[in-house]
From TrEMBL:
It comes from Daucus carota subsp. sativus (Carrot). One of its GO terms (biological process) is pollen tube growth. Residues 1-21 form the signal peptide. This is Leucine-rich repeat-containing N-terminal plant-type domain-containing protein. The keyword 4Fe-4S does not apply. Its main location: other. It is found in: Cell envelope. The keyword Repeat applies.
Amino acid sequence: MHLSHPLFLLTLSLLSTLSTSQPSLSSLEQESLYQVLESINSDISWRTLFPDDLCYSSPHGVVCEYFTISGAGAGDESVHVTELSFGFVSDYSPNPPCNRHSKINVPALSAFKELKKLLFYKCFTGDEVPVPEFEGFSGVLEELVFIENPSLVGPFKGDIRSLSSLKRFVLIGSGVYGWVPPGLGELSSLEQLTFSRNRLSGDISGVNVSKLRNLKVLDLSYNGFFGNLPESFGGLESLLKLDLSYNGFHGEVPMSFKGLRKLEFLDLSYNRFFNCGVPLVLGEMTCLTEVYLSGNDLGGEIPEIWENLGGILGLGLSRNGLIGHIPGSMGVFLKNLCYLGLDNNKLQGEVPSEFGTLEMVSELNLENNSLSGEIPFDAKFVSKIGGKLKLKGNSQLCVDQELRVDDHLKHLKLCKKPEVPRLVLLHDSGSLVVLVSRVAIAISWGFSLFLIS
Ligand SMILES: *[C@@H]1O[C@H](CO)[C@@H](O)[C@H](O)[C@H]1NC(C)=O
Ligand SMILES: *[C@@H]1O[C@H](CO)[C@@H](O)[C@H](O)[C@H]1NC(C)=O
């Protein structure tokens, strides 16, 4: 049992030696706290273990704060419960442990008028617990966090606009279904909205989030939301992270997204953004560091939008039905790439020689395309990336004799080394210099050169 942990006892004894000249917790909050603790775990005799003022000798997970009534003389202080965290996290934060019968005692929780943070971690895993109505909760509540509570079920009930101080609303891994709570769009203090891995659903296209000016994180991943992405998302000018992966969103990514000036992380993977191509608006979102669009059947060729995206570290474009060549500009501009996934598309032509100069790259997945020609990597590059250089499923790709000794490249066929320039089809219109098998050939404007070996 967690209560016998040495840290727990140490805190207890320390706190009980504190001076008692401080204000005491009101009997309403004291009694409500016992009731909340009993609703979380009735196997523990809370009243016996903690007979004194619960702000002097409190279980881990209970935080109190002192308040001075402004304008009043000394001694006019009060103490209130400001944070409650339930569900054992670790030996260093042994919150009151939940059990299979844990419940949420809404009336008792509503007694804490200064409550700023309420957290339930792996708390509701047995008996079904309905989503509480949040209306009665403290108007100063800043953090409402539910993590891994599979038995928290049902739809949201009641309007939550009264939680006007709410900054973090986190609901991860629950059985909550239906639409988002009414009044959510009014919470203008909100900085983080993470509703990941629940059973939420509904058409989001008409949503207006224009009041959520302070939102930094919006994560609706792994739910059943669908519809077009709302134009109003583009007004979230503080947004740093947008994760909408694993839903049923479709249509084009609105041009209004260029208003997401600070966005660093964008994950739209595994939705139904079908046949609309790689969104060009990405090219204007210059703070991006991670972009994941895999599993959408976007179709089309990879556009030339990379010039201002040098901050990108991770780019996922797998399983998108992409056709055509891989633009060399990706290797030129995406200098900080650590991860690039272009696997399971229909890409053709050579791997751009510029990819061989990507110094930061630690995973490059080009599997299952129709790429051809000699791979542009040297021995140093290959040994650095090892098994994370993924090239299988490209039957026309070949490798030089010296590189083929590497275990990870044994599956590739050997390039035939011609004495004269080998068969290359070049169609290009700019003035460019192409190195073909160490022979430099200048090609002038506007024609294709067909060199026969
Ligand atoms: C969203 O609501 C605001 C007012 O709250 C309004 O000015 C704006 O036009 C709306 N945006 C959209 C896209 O409906
Ligand atoms: C490529 O296709 C093969 C056969 O369909 C599959 O087993 C493999 O997982 C695919 N590679 C990737 C990276 O998905």
